[in-house]
Amino acid sequence: MNVYLVGGAVRDELLGLPVRERDWVVVGATEAEVAAAGFRRVDAAFPVYLHPETGEEYALARRETKTGPGYKGFVVEAGPDVTLEEDLARRDLTINAMARDAAGAIHDPFGGRADLDAGLLRHVTPAFVEDPVRVLRAARFAAVLGRWGFRVAHATHGLMKCMAAGEDLRHVAPARLWREMRGALAAEQPWRFFEVLAACGALPRLLPELAGHLPPRAPHVGEDPPAALQNLRRIASSDSELDARFAALMLGPVLAGLDVQRLRQELPADGVCYDRLAHCREVCQALPALAQAQPVALVAFLNRQRAFSRPERLERSLRVCVTVCGEPLAGAAARVRGALAAARGVDAAALAADGLRGLALRHALDVRRAAAVDAAAAVADS
């Protein structure tokens, strides 16, 4: 049998990027031989095994034949007669269809290395259209590799348009949609995921609840991108956390009336993402009234937001709100930040040392904090 390193690990090595996980393909072996070597099978549908020492995935070389709709409508054939080239041919993009053998030689039957040099995301074979998830993967790689100028090849874009016009995208499971979108949101240029999906017409099929709030097409040269993507671009430059990026993308549509409960059904994002979105909506709706609020009202707001025990939670939501709503909320956000800084200067331990407890301590804290906020505002105005 022969073992090859395949896929993303080879791609990232050639790009000079850190390799986070390694996948291997075994050519010329039977399932019995792999099992006898101590490998443990982990997938009932596919001949994928875990190495007994490293825990890395090893898969038997396989062919796939399309038999039904969606990304599960395939018959898989694995065996010692399946060649390395046949295994690589079933992959999505040429940059993911390379292998490295034990001697270090690169096997590249579909021109992946040339496409890496050219910055092209190009399909391996016309069978690309058989798996609707490949539309999402192409969009995700546009986000992940966007800083190097990678773009979808013209012919591949044409296939993606055909796929978007068909019915197969409706078979993509919401969990798989979120998995690919999550990876894109973590990338350096997350907005490119949505631009690619818009350009091929896939957004209304994949995210109908969001389609009216995100671009119906990619922006033309010199044209400003839609507000939601501008917000995502701005927050991505200052916050790498998934929940903040998700909230920056979704907050504008939510404030414009997007039904969050229906969105949850089509996009099962991590709970922390929806928690951040809900908190940002609450903060955005409260901020206009806080621009001229009295110190007592500011302290009450800070208490409701648990800002004294979790100041970073409020700060990150304020940053998203100002990113999305801009100048109209910037002054109010600055006032809230100033109030929090002043109020945190009150020594709760000193009040407790005076014998105050329970509600009496809480009331005294609120009074002292409001006075501190008032004093700080007076200094700022003088």
Describe the fold and architecture:
Helix content is 53%, strand content 10%. The strands form three sheets. The protein has a seven-stranded mixed β-sheet. Strands 6-7 form a two-stranded antiparallel sheet. A two-stranded parallel sheet has the order 10-11. A hairpin with a 7-residue loop joins strand 6 and strand 7. The longest helix has 24 residues.
Task: Tell me the layout of helices and strands.
Layout: E1 2-6, H1 8-15, E2 23-27, H2 31-36, E3 40-41, E4 48-50, E5 57-60, E6 62-66, E7 74-78, H3 84-89, E8 99-100, E9 106-107, H4 112-118, E10 120-121, H5 133-144, E11 151-152, H6 154-165, H7 174-185, H8 191-200, H9 203-206, H10 208-211, H11 227-236, H12 242-255, H13 260-266, H14 271-290, H15 295-304, H16 311-325, H17 327-343, H18 348-353, H19 358-381
Parallel strand pairs: 2-5, 10-11
Antiparallel strand pairs: 1-2, 1-8, 3-4, 4-5, 6-7, 8-9
